[in-house]
Amino acid sequence: MATHDTTEATDSTTGPSKEVVTWKTKLRYFLNSDFVRSSPYWGIPFVLMGIAVYGGIGYNLAISFTDYAGIGRPEFSNLSLEMYRTALADGSFRQAAFQNFVLLVGFTSVSLALGLFLAVLLDYGIRYKETIQTIYLLPMALSFVVTAQVWLWMYSPGNGVLNVFVTALGFGSIDWLGNPRIALAAVIFALVWQFSGYAMVVFLAGLQSLPSDQFEAAKVDGASTAKTYIRIIIPQLKQASVGAAVVLMLFALKAFDFLYAITGDYRPPNGTDILATLMVREAFQYGQWAYGAAIATMLLLLSLSVIAPYLVYQYRQGAL
Amino acid sequence: MVDNDKLVDGIGRRTYLGGIATGAAAGLAGCASGNTADGLEVLHGWTGGDGADAIETLTDAFEEEHSDIDGTFEAVGGDGNVELNTSILQRLTNENPMSSFANWPGNNLERYEGVLMDLEEDVWEAEGLKENMQDRAVELCTFNGQMPAVPIGSHRLNNLFYNTAAFDEAGIDAEDLGSTSDLLDALETIDQDTDYVPFAHGMRSAFLGLQTWVQILASQSGVDAYTDFIEGDGDRDAMIDALETLQEIQENYITDDASAIGYTQAAQNLISDEAACIHGGNWLYGMFRADDDFNYGEEWDWIPFPGTEGVYFYHLDAFVTPGDNPSPEETVEWQKFVGTQEAQIEFNNLKGSVPLRTDIESDELADFLKMTYEDLLDSDEYPPTLAHGLAVEPEQQNDCEGAIGDHFMDPYDAEAAADGLLDAVSE
């Protein structure tokens, strides 16, 4: 090897020989580089992840262009956007998309507002801070299935806890999940109960990372506590807010588990159908694979539209 | 070189790659084996209660008779066979069929079109089942000129079970209820004169409203109105009339928590002496029987749903056989066994349904089932149930449930629901 290298070096006075040596040397450097030598560690997971996730997404996208339904294999010879056109013309799809949007906005905004309120209270130094923090965070440790069962009992029109209070106040019993006018609000409320603790922790971490001299400076300037938070502290929680909002919105998009656990059926309570439940119903109950794939693709695009501005924001902040 | 092959701390690269390779091989082996089992593999949805007891007795009897066959009988849970149907669909789509699965025959078999095994020669003719099964069952187990299913039991849908104490207290003679208007009068009397909830009814799933609407339609406008509807030629006015009757019941005579409960909780209201009557398939009998203090002819009794005397609304459970069967010989033996007198009596006595064989001594069945079995053999009409797969294709059935779910679960819109139902069956 060494002799051969020497010979090549001797011949390197001419142009072409010099290129050969450079190419081989470069290859040797490349093969000995950290990138290549570490590739078994990152490359294999990368390939597996690529096949399992992005391969799956790609296959789903391909199926959505076919008319694949029932038992058999998809036929890829005649691809079209027919399933997307069908979905956009379908009242069930439009209703599910609208309800998904309401869930997304309602759940995220209320969770953020409540989380911020709790975080400010805790940050202000109220008594039993740790206990309260644990109480609010605990629901997040529960699975959607458990939360659904808990709230099914809470909302029961017969003897549910909420109706015990409502009837004690002299009102009639309310059919929280059975009335399509309020069912989605009831679902949002239950999800807020589960996830506002998460928003609280994110905001609290943000608040506690702020230097205390800002509070002191505001105090010296005579600002009230409320004004200090509103004008000085909360604006600095922008990054925490964006991060928490993205996570909450993604939870809202995949609330299928919660809705499925309420009825044990692919058809959730009337007025609460969302794209995820519609997609599962079309694909796995009716065997309309192509139509289900088209809905899944649109759900993915919706998720990306939620997360893309966040990624751009992070990039501009230099966090990516 | 040696140094390059080893990490200073941690596992070596070769060890790491070996581990990855072993894991990948194990994973691929796991994927390749899928859910298939050696020998006979049967999927069903009877995960608890009387259904679980019935299938266990059935499979024990089969294994005792066929000790040479290695059988796996797997219960797949979920309301209304949701998970079972999903599991079957996924496995058949992935070309990973099981030996047999419990399902409804009739139009429900459309969802498995093209991947079913014909049992006509090996089971139906070999065992003489065509001569010994009720004609309607033979008809419903025939699909696209093949016979891929063997029936195991039938439930009757047009039942009104009632709490005898409630009817006595209200002074109602159940035998006098010959129409839905009689039923509405009785419900009003119970509501006015007793503390009972007049009508136990679950509304958590749309199929419960759908099946009650079917009974009302057949009662008010005749079975022909129903069969015209499922054939795509429904009388919209008759349908709206039936929907309005259902609305009257749901608005006035059911429990406050109806939207949160299914039929099992609704039936529990009858057992716990809180409700006066309930409509449902005679699987409710299986629930009643489980309570020693709630006995047929004493605490509860039965009449056909008012206005449907002489009609047997037909529900059918069967074992279906996929083609490309992983165990064709064992599967044929299993299906032969399903059609035997022994299997039909053992299973149905526990399940609360009735055998489809016509050569069974009715004394072999419990009292209530004996009466149902005699009605099965000797009714005037046998319309198929809508909410249980027999009457229309699966997607039409789902759209019918959607029409009720979207327009008739409070708030009520009878016209929109009727149009939705008509659209569903005209597809």
Task: Write up this protein.
- The complex is a heterodimer of chains A (320) and B (427).
- Chain A folds into two domains: 37 residues; 226 residues, MetI-like (MetI-like fold), CATH 1.10.3720.10.
- Helix content of chain A is 73%, strand content 0%.
- Chain A is built from 16 helices and no strands.
- Chain B has two domains: 166 residues, Periplasmic binding protein-like II (D-Maltodextrin-Binding Protein, domain 2), CATH 3.40.190; 198 residues, D-Maltodextrin-Binding Protein, domain 2 (3-Layer(aba) Sandwich).
- In chain B, the strands form two sheets. Chain B has a five-stranded mixed β-sheet, with helices on both faces. In chain B, strands 6-7-5-8 form a four-stranded mixed β-sheet.
- The N terminus of chain B is likely disordered.
- Chain B has 427 residues and is an alpha/beta fold.
- The chains are: A mainly alpha (320), B alpha/beta (427).
- At the A-B interface, helix 4 of A face helix 2, helix 4 and helix 18 of B.
